[in-house]
Amino acid sequence: MSRQPVNILKYLPPETDRAGLIRLFDSYRSRYIGSQLIDDCSRQAGACVSQEELVGCLEAALVNGDEKTCRDLVARMCRDNVPFMIVAHEIAYLRDALIKLAVEADESNLVTAAVTFFDDLQDHLAQVFLDDFLKILRTRNHVRLQHIAALSEKNLLVYFERHLAWMEKLTEAVATRDVTAMPEMDHQNCEFGQWLHNEGMALIRDRSHYKEIVRIHADMHGVVPDIRNAMAGGADSLPILARLKKAENHSLDLGSEISMLNSMVIMSVYSKDPMTGLLTRRSLDRIMLNQLEISRATETPCCLLMCDLDHFKQINDEHGHVVGDQAILHFSQVMREVLRQSDLLFRYGGEEFLIILPSTDYDQGMALAEKLRARLNDQPMSVEQAKVDVRASFGLLEVHGRKTAFIDNELVRELIQACDQKLYLAKQRGRNQVA
């Protein structure tokens, strides 16, 4: 049994114009100069659309009305998280090239045919992309909610859970094209907004940080009336897709911010080392498991930073154990001055420390570690009118919850060991550096 053509285009040119467009495609292929984005496409290891693929799928649509190849191409772009604007850019680039060929051949009727065909094509491929994106977004939200539901300690993540329920409602309303099913539009009236403008205001002491979270949340809610008006007015899929993607990006930003705020709660709840006031090794496994689960739920990486004071025995031998204790306190104070309020600081051993940097990728972690190292170098410890240099070595490791098959105590031990190996490398390289 032969496969039926898949055609969602409302418009196909008349037979004579279609034959002319096919000629233009053949001419373009013979003079192929490549996509403007061909280098970018190759760097993404095939995660981009090439002109060759686009020409092939459009010829199939024109020759026999079969758009399956184009639909498969767009579906792949969606799965690879390639913005539809890249597809739209390639379509526009190809359209302009064919129009130029039509003008050179003095076939004005093909100029009109090309414009009509490509405009209709972009609208409908945007619809395909939007439908696929909605399916992916539904799945992502469901998985995120499952991960948060599985957390042994939700703390502030309960508010992200409520926010994801809001996103789920938005996604469902767009999927069903039901403007009456849209979620709360006022960013102060949704459940997360009510928390943010009350208890959240008291928790977030940094006013600029607080204002940034409010802005992200308000901007995300701002897409709701735009999407609602677009659906009510029968707008094309492209503006709806762009606004929905914007809402998801803001949602992930909120997840990252809530993850960091959640760490502030942990710092205030768990027992502390009596000397430094930092978290103790006793609570490390439990907190790390929680952070890995949060990393998976919010789809953001975190970093581990292992620190060890350089030549600590020498400080004790030359100045005594009291000064050695002061060196540990000095380092603890410098960490508090340099690192963020959301970073989790542990006294791991005598002069060894472990820091968990929530919602932080490797480059951001390296910048924080270097800032801490430099501040320590620039800020010697004062002891009885003398200055004592306190230096440290650092091992940095990026961790991503969604890249790990199992989150358990064995994983925690493996990650700490890997981070400790980085610290050992920094020591081997001469100390006072980040590896």
Question: Could you explain how this protein is built, in words?
Answer:
The N terminus is likely disordered. This protein has a five-stranded mixed β-sheet with strand order 1-3-4-2-7, sandwiched between helices. The chain has a two-stranded antiparallel sheet with strand order 5-6. It has 435 residues and is an alpha+beta fold. It contains 16 helices and seven strands. The protein has three domains: 118 residues; 115 residues, Aspartate receptor, ligand-binding domain (Four Helix Bundle (Hemerythrin (Met), subunit A), Up-down Bundle); 158 residues, Reverse transcriptase/Diguanylate cyclase domain (Alpha-Beta Plaits, 2-Layer Sandwich), CATH 3.30.70.270.
Features:
elongated, Four Helix Bundle (Hemerythrin (Met), subunit A), alpha+beta, disordered N terminus, two-stranded antiparallel sheet, 435 residues, Alpha-Beta Plaits, single chain, 5-stranded mixed β-sheet
Question: Can you describe this structure in just a few lines?
Answer:
With 435 residues, the chain is α+β, with helices and mostly antiparallel strands. It has helices spanning 15-30, 38-43, 51-64, 68-79, 84-104, 108-149, 157-176, 191-196, 199-203, 207-232, 237-269, 284-298, 312-319, 321-338, 362-378, 409-428; strands at residues 279-280, 302-309, 344-347, 352-357, 381-383, 386-388, 392-399. Helix 10 (207-232) runs antiparallel to helix 11.
